């Protein structure tokens, strides 16, 4: 018996079967990118806050640090951001938390906050 066309459509069936796995892999990779970006944003926000805090007088340090830390965050990232610590004397520190979004910033956030920490020596005022 001669069978012809026995493998017809095999590639289509395999691709259809692999499509969910390919999509899942892409979604997980995108989520990993968002986690990394959240760490980058939190670290940069802490750096900016400390930079502003070291230049501000001690009484205005908390406000200047907080404002500078949140300034560069866009709306979706800023809404979930938290400033845990901002200020100090001599050694100024900042600790800024950013929520990790699920797939799209502003849609749903994971119950995970990544923290950025920074510190710098207070500038001498004359």
Account of the 3D structure:
With 126 residues, the protein is α+β, with helices and mostly antiparallel strands. The chain is built from three helices and three strands, in the order H-H-H-E-E-E. It has a three-stranded antiparallel beta sheet with strand order 1-2-3. Strand 2 and strand 3 form a beta hairpin. The longest helix is centred in the N-terminal third of the chain and has 46 residues. The radius of gyration is 24 Å and the shape is rod-shaped. The chain starts with 9 loop residues before the first helix and ends in a 5-residue tail after the last strand. The mean pLDDT is 83.
Summarize the SSE layout with pairings.
Blueprint lengths: L9 H46 L5 H11 L3 H5 L2 E6 L3 E11 L7 E13 L5
Antiparallel strand pairs: 1-2, 2-3
């Amino acid at each position: 018996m001669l069978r012809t066309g026995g493998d017809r459509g095999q590639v289509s069936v395999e691709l259809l079967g692999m499509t969910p796995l390919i999509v899942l892999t892409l979604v997980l990779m995108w989520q990993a990118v968002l986690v990394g970006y959240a760490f980058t944003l939190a670290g940069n926000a802490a750096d900016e806050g400390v930079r502003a805090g070291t230049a501000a007088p001690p009484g205005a340090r908390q406000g200047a640090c907080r404002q500078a830390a949140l300034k560069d965050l866009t709306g979706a990232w800023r809404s979930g951001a938290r400033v845990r610590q901002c200020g100090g004397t001599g050694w100024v520190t900042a600790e800024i938390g950013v929520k990790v979004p699920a797939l799209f910033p502003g849609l749903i956030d994971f119950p995970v906050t990544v923290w950025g920490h920074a510190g710098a020596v207070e500038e001498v005022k004359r």
